[in-house]
Amino acid sequence: MEYTVRKATWEDLPVIERLYANARKFMAEHDNPTQWGQNKPSREQIEQDIMAGKHYVYVENGQIAGVFYFAHEVDPTYEKIYDGNWQNNEEYAVVHRIAS
Question: In the sheet where 3-7 sits, what is the strand order?
């Protein structure tokens, strides 16, 4: 088996959108219909991620089998932590929008 992870390209967009559509369907069928709803991540979000060089594809045997967002950045989602706190002030990376 041959596999690699690489930054997504514009040519990958149709496959990426199909993977996210399948993931939304799976989530809805398994009691998680609201996390991504019917249109998250949006095409515009995916395009922004690709332009920023932060969207990646997992390629297995020449086929895209997974996608995700990865960035070494401060994430606004984590600016406020409820019922807990960060253990330190070290820099961190985030992974979002995972689908396979």
Answer: 3-7, 55-60, 63-71, 94-99
